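Lecture 7 notes: from sequence to structure.

We start with a single chain of 170 residues. Read the sequence below before looking at the structure.
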Amino acid sequence: MRPPKIFSALGVWLLGSSAVLAAPIAPITPEETAALQAKIQSLNTEAAAQRKLAAEALAARDAACYKKVLVSACLDQSRKDDVAARLAIRQLEAESRRLQREIHLRQAATQESAAKAAAPAEAQATAEKAAREREASAAREAEFARREALHQERLEEGKRHAEREAKARA
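Now the structure, written as tokens:
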């Protein structure tokens, strides 16, 4: 039993997209982004205009069909023509979406390359911060130990003083 056509088309699409995903993605400059955005805008505008024209043409063809003898055959042909026109419009929209995805992927690649470039500086800053924190912690511990020793010394002095007073009273 053969698999349905949708599965074979899906397999071809997946194989094709994996080849695209395996290719390295180049970072994008703001100029390239602006150029691609302008192209996307023009594609969307053209698709909207063609969609409007296709709707008007369908209405005109349908109206003309009702004046003919074989109305249903004419309407069927009109629908087929409309489907073909909408297919062309969908291809424009698909190209627009593809360009939008390209922009998104390339912006992500740009951010990733910037993060990789900044990683050594961030690592050094983190190491310096950790060293400063260790030094500050060591200084706090030394101060604590000094105060603790002073406190113990005063306690011992207090005990000796109490012993001397006790001997003096005795």
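The radius of gyration is 40 Å. Keep this in mind for problem set 3.
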